[in-house]
Amino acid sequence: MSRGHGWARGALAAAALLAVAVPALPACGPAYGADYLLAFRAGERAYEAGRWDEAGGEFERAARLATRVKDRDEARFMQARSALKLGRHEQARAAYVALAAATPTGPRAARALFDIAELDIDHGDAALGWRELEEALVAHPSHGSARVALTRICDHRAETEGETAVRAWLEARLPGFAGSEAEEQAKYGLARSFERGGSLDEAHAAYLRVAREHPYPHGSLHDDALYRASELAERMGRYELAIADLRALLAVREVALGGQSYERPRMPMAQMRIAELHRDRLNDPEGARREYRRMYETHPSSLLADDAIWQEALLARAAGDGARACEVAATIEKDFARSRYARCVAVVCPSAAPPEGERPCPRYIAAPGEPADGAADE
User: Fold this and answer.
1) CA-CA distance, 205 to 215, in Å (whole number)?
2) Around Cβ 239, how many Cβ atoms within 10 Å?
3) Smallest Cα–Cα separation from 314: which of 289, 297, 336, 335?
4) Which residues pair with 261 in a beta bridge?
């Protein structure tokens, strides 16, 4: 045997001896307690299997065995959830109350308070529940349940007291919501209240306030506020203002790595509405053609992209711009071959050939409201 092999065998033997002589060190993690873990994991298995009665018992046992406060609270929270699955509302409420009372500043306490209020509203003393929901919201305006709670409170007050009361309640609480998750939602709620009450000018200004004071990307309602503002401007006959609101929505666009851009849900529809406002409200077909083209060029992956390119083709045909209509038809054949409009290209460009084997172009696509020659009924 070579000297190298002998050294290796000796090193292995020493390592094995050391492993036997020195006990394994515990992992650097939380000490849950073996009995707690066994009970909690048994509860999880039963919960996922739909055995909620068994799950509730295991979670209750885990709460008694927990060595850490947060583990006890989590077990009680899951005990309550198991009771809810069985429709045992009083039992669920008792578990939430025990959780919140034992650890009022714990990680599950705020959620327990919101859930207690919801249970009382829906299955107990509703008047008490509405007070509890407001108290939970005021105490925890940045909790994940705060936005839903605020919207529900506003809707309830609107039904029982009217929109003026909703706005008075929101204005009174806005200072306390400053810097919290509820602040933006409260301002959005003010705009909704003005809109529901028919005060469109005030509603429009309130939506713009939301967008201005909570800009993207920090404001989660920024795009919704601008979109709703544009709808109100259109309803008031202020079409240029509606377009300006939509352009403000589209103006903020993040750039990702590789030159791509982040697409937000409202963006394609905003661009589409700009084109429609030019076409239907401003009687500006040339402007509409430009905006439809911008729609499919800047939002090519949108489900509305092929609708936009078809509208441009129809407008080009109506304007007598056959050359542009055929250019658009070629783009449809190249980039939107799987679109329903691909079989209609000959309608806007007689020299274009639809895909072989396709059915004829339906009338509702060829010329909405005015069937074209040779168009089929569908």
Assistant:
1) 15
2) 17
3) 289
4) 255
**Distance from C-alpha of 378 to C-alpha of 363, rounded to nearest angstrom:** 7
Q: In the block, which residue shows the tokens 């007291």?
A: 161
pTM of the model: 0.83
Q: What spatial distance separates the first Cα and last Cα of the chain, rounded to whole Å?
A: 88
Closest listed residue to residue 267, CA positions, set 243, 281, 278, 251: 251
Which residues, 6 or more positions from 145, have their beta carbon under 8 angstroms from its beta carbon?
110, 111, 114, 136
Q: Which residues lie closer than 8 Å to 356 by C-beta, 6 or more apart?
A: none
**For 58-104, what is each residue's pLDDT tens digit?**
999 999 999 999 999 999 999 999 999 999 999 999 999 999 999 99
Which among 172, 245, 178, 170 has a CA at the least distance from the CA of 207?
245
Q: Which of 249, 286, 289 is nearest to 269 (CA)?
A: 249
Alpha carbons 341 and 364: distance in angstroms, whole number = 11
Which DSSP letter does residue 342 get? G
pLDDT tens string 294-335: 999 999 999 999 999 999 999 999 999 999 999 999 999 999
For residue 362, what are the β-bridge partners? 376
Q: Where are the domains of the chain?
A: 295-378
